[in-house]
Structure formats: C-alpha cells, structure tokens
Write a structure and sequence with these properties.
- The structure is a single chain.
- With 537 residues, the chain is α+β, with helices and mostly antiparallel strands.
- The protein has 4 domains: 133 residues, no CATH class; 115 residues, no CATH class; 172 residues, no CATH class; 31 residues, no CATH class.
- 44% of the residues lie in helices and 11% in strands.
- The chain is built from 17 helices and 12 strands.
- It has a 5-stranded antiparallel β-sheet, with helices on both faces. A 5-stranded antiparallel β-sheet has the order 6-7-9-10-8, with helices on both faces. The protein has a two-stranded antiparallel ribbon with strand order 11-12.
- A hairpin with a 5-residue loop joins strand 4 and strand 5.
- It is globular and about 100 Å long.
Length: 537
C-alpha cells in the first residue's frame, strides 16, 4: 500500500514517492487520487522522473480552475488530444465538476472516471489520456489511443488460394473489430482481462453466449487470472501457462492469425483468446486431428477437401516413421525388401563409413538446420538458401561418400511430407518425435518403432485440452463427428456441432433448402418456361 499525507509541500510529496511500498500497479489501487492539483502534479513528476515520453501538462479552464493532462507520447492520437484540450480550455459551464466536464466538455466516446492511482496509471500507460482537475477527488481517463502501427494484410503463415485475405495485427481493438464484422450479433461476447504484473497486457476472451459452455468460459477466465508473471509479451506465454500438460510435445491450443478461423471456431462452441501486441489468437479446446485441418477445407468443394485431408494423413505418417523404417529395414530386416531393391541399396551403401542411423541423423539434422536458416533469413534469400543448400549439400555428400543416395531420398520425402501439415506447432511435434523413433529403430528394429508408436498413442489417449479428450472423435469414438474429421462432408450434412464439445445449441445448419432441392430433384430443364419461337426463325 502507498503511504502519503495530503500536503502541498513538494519535499513531502517527493519523500512520499521515495517511500512507495509497491511493486506493481495493482498495489496502487488502494491509494486515492489527491484532491489538490499541486500534490498530483508533484507526485506524478517524481513518479515519472527520467521518463521523457510521459507528458504532464497543466492547463487552465475558462472559469478559472486548473487541470492536469497526462499521457504517453507515441501511444496517443496527438490530433485528438489537441482537440480535447481546446474543448476543455474554452469550457464555460457553471461549475468544473468532473461529471459536468465529462458530459459537456470532452468530445471523446470512451471516457471513464477513476478514483485511485492504480486504475489511473494503468490506463495512461496503456495509451489513454488522464485528466486531473483541481479540488476534485476523481480523475477522468479518455480513450484517445493512437492508430495501429501495421496495416491489415494477408497472413503469411496461413496463406490460402480461396478465402479471405485479411489477418490479425498487433492492435487488440483492430483484431476484435475483424471478428465483430464476421459475427454481427450481440451474443458474441468479448470479456476483457489483464495479465502480466509489469506489462499489464490487455486480453480479450471471445465466445458465443448462446453456444459456448459457461463452464468452459469460466475455466479459461480463471486460468488466465491466476497467471503470475512479470510480463506477457506474446500469446506463447498464455499458452504455456493455461494448457493442461505443459510437458507434452503436442499442442493443446490452436493459434492462428486469421479472423475467419477464429469466427468458425467460436461458432463451434470454442473460446478464443486475443492478446494485445501479437497477431496470434489462441483457440481452445483443441484436438489432435485438427492439426491436419486447414481453414481452406471449408471454402473448397467437399470432395477436394476430403482428398487433401487423406493426403495429409498419409504424409503425416510418412513424416513420422520413414527415416526410422529405413534404418530398421536396412539394419535388421533386409529380407523385407525385394532382391533387386536390396542389391541396389547395398551397393549404394557399400562405401559409406557410417551405420544407417548415423547417416540418417546427419541428414536429418542438416535438413532441420537448413529449414531453420530459411525461416530466419530475409525472405528474398531464405527460400533460395534452404532449397539450394539442400540440393548442393545432398549431392556433395553423396559424391563424397558420406551418405548414400537412398538416404537423401528418404530425408527429402520426410521433409516434403512435414510441409503438408497445416498447423506449424503440430508439424514441429511430428518432427521432434522423429528422432526418438529413429534411435529406437536402430536399437530394436521394428519392435522399437512399434513400442514408440504405442507410447505416443498412449500419451495422446491420456491427454486433455480443457477437459476434452485429445483423440476425439476417435477415442472416445463418435461416428457422427467423423464426417468432419477423417473426411469433410458437404455443408448440408454438417448440421450439428462436434459432440465432443459441450455446447448449448447443437444445431448449426438448417435442412430446409437441402430437403427442398432433393424433393424437387433440382430445377429440371423441362420446367423452365421458354418463349415461343417467332415466325421465320
């Protein structure tokens, strides 16, 4: 708690600042605003000493009382602040009460009254403008924040051929507005929260009131409120704190920078978390099969989306087990290969000085390093370095006799297969698990691969995402939900929301138009009226 005396003496105010017994802004909520403007001015100047970006300006109103304007330069809209100052300074009301100023003199939509320094400083440091009037025990906070620093453009990590081209930015209000444009209903709720003792990062929990389970919303809010950390600088902080198992290699929360993905998830009964300062939104709950689902699956025809999903399933399995399978077969189970293929592999490995597992590790680690370098380098040269590096290094390694040609093919297939996984965090999990499988295959052969796969499946079966089984709808099995998991059924067949999510309203698609078209057998050509041909035609 902050201890101070109500005095105008500058020395005592300075001494009060030095004796502040607080560490975070939450501790200042028990300390009311000074009635004296001089005390407030000296207190703020001492508090923000050596803070060149904090502007503390004293003005005089038309009727005589003085006021103090406090804001952070760079976080506010300067033109709007100047307009507000002009309106306050020429105000000619009968009195200069805070209520009268807020109702008649300040042309700002977002305006709130605070009575303590905790709320006052939190708003000012977030980009609002604070107003203190002499002989008033309350202060005003005007929401005149500056515009976002980056324009809305197409997401780089989730590009699509068909679909919206807008993505989230680092401004929280811009992100919430993009969701609101897609879901124009008062049932779309956006609950504000704050996380981080020093950063005071603003968060918004988005959900549909008539669809989402209230217990799920309450659990998400409670977990966020219990976060105890100095600062929240990105959504990854929130993800690791509130997920069910932070030691699991598999993601239990989906992150996206697409408003349409968030809107679709909210309409399923999920909860989205938007964090100020990052273009990534978190979505909970999240299950394993959604790693292989892309938002574009719902924009294309259903049979195209289904075929693409099957392709992803196949390549996910190849990405996980292909190097381990090659090592196990060439080391312990050569009899599984056809004779001609076995002779070809043996001839290619005849001059290789390393066993198959070392050969695979060399190529896998090199490929991962090239992929990481391609991500970190500038875009103009990043892709060229990763592609040319893989080609040049692979060819040179084969010619030098360090690795065999089949191993280069195996690693290339594995790398291409990992690129087909739409969710980046899911692809990383598969890439990480590839190495334990590789080592187990080099020691135990096929039994090592099967043992590792059983451990992975067992871990997945035991995993939860906010209470939802991670392998849903496979375990527990829900055949109805397989229409939007293993395949993508047409929209008329997706009439209900996923059953593994506890929702208030299970129906999401009406059947009227589909039943009418089916009953009428479509619009037949003979039923379309044609004009009679003219004579002579």
């Amino acid at each position: 708690m902050l201890y101070r005396k109500n005095t105008k003496a500058q020395k005592e105010v300075a001494q009060t600042v030095e004796e502040l017994d607080y560490r975070f802004l939450e501790d200042l909520k028990a300390d009311p605003v000074y009635p004296s403007l001089d005390d407030n001015k000296e207190f703020l100047k001492e508090l923000f000493k050596d803070c060149s970006d904090v502007v503390i300006r004293e003005i005089r109103l038309e009727r005589g009382p003085r006021a103090l304007i406090v804001f952070v330069d760079g976080l506010v809209d300067t033109a709007a602040v100047n307009e507000m100052l002009r309106s306050i300074m020429i105000f000619e009301g009968d009195s200069c009460q805070i209520e009268q100023l807020s109702m008649q003199a300040i042309p700002v939509n977002q305006l709130k009254k605070v009575d303590n320094y905790g709320d006052f400083l939190q708003s000012v440091l977030s980009g609002d403008t604070g107003i203190l009037v002499d002989n008033q025990e309350n202060a005003l906070v005007a929401g005149i924040r500056g515009p976002q620093t980056r324009s809305v453009n197409e997401p780089e990590t989730e590009s699509v051929i068909r679909g919206p081209r807008e993505g989230f930015i680092e401004n929280l209000r811009t992100n919430t507005s993009m969701i609101r444009r897609k879901l124009k209903t008062p049932r779309l709720k956006m609950k504000p929260l704050v996380a981080g003792k020093e950063s005071q990062t603003n968060l918004v929990v988005c959900y549909m009131e008539d669809i989402a389970d209230p217990a799920l919303v309450e659990e998400v809010v409670n977990r966020i409120r219990k976060i105890d950390i100095d600062a929240v600088l990105e959504s990854g902080y929130i993800e690791e704190f509130i997920q069910d198992s932070y030691l699991s290699p598999f993601p239990q929360m989906q992150y996206t920078e697409r408003p349409d993905t968030v809107a679709g998830a909210i309409l399923q009964g999920r909860v989205a978390i938007l964090i100020d300062g990052t273009p990534m939104a978190l979505i909970v709950p999240f299950v394993f099969l959604e790693i292989l689902q892309a938002n574009e699956d719902y924009f294309e025809r259903f049979y195209i989306a289904t075929l693409v999903r099957w392709l992803r399933y196949i390549f996910m399995i190849l990405s996980l087990i292909t190097p381990a399978l090659y090592v196990a077969i060439t080391t312990y189970h050569q009899d599984l290969l056809p004779t001609n293929l076995l002779l070809s592999v043996a001839a290619s490995r005849e001059a290789i000085p390393f066993p198959a597992v070392i050969e695979a590790l060399i190529m896998e680690i090199t490929f991962e390093a090239l992929r990481e370098a391609g991500i970190r380098l500038p875009k103009a040269i990043g892709s060229a370095v990763s592609i040319l590096g893989a080609l040049v290094i692979g060819q040179a390694a084969v010619e030098a006799g360090i690795v065999s040609a089949p191993m280069v093919i195996v690693v290339s297939i594995t790398g291409i297969a990992s690129f087909t996984i739409p969710r980046y965090n899911g692809a990383i999990s598969i890439r990480m698990l590839r190495f334990p499988l590789l080592i187990a295959a080099s020691i135990f052969g096929m039994l090592g691969i099967l043992g590792c796969l059983l451990l992975i499946v067992g871990h997945l079966a035991n995993l939860r995402s906010f209470g939802v089984p991670y392998l849903s709808p496979l375990a527990p099995l829900s055949t109805k939900d397989l229409r939007d998991s293993l395949a993508r059924a047409p929209w008329p067949a997706l009439f209900s929301r996923p059953s593994f999510l506890t929702v208030r309203d299970t129906e999401r698609v009406g059947k009227q138009i589909h039943d009418e078209i089916f009953r009428q057998e479509g619009q037949k050509g003979i039923d379309i009226p044609h004009s009679e041909p003219r004579k002579g035609q």
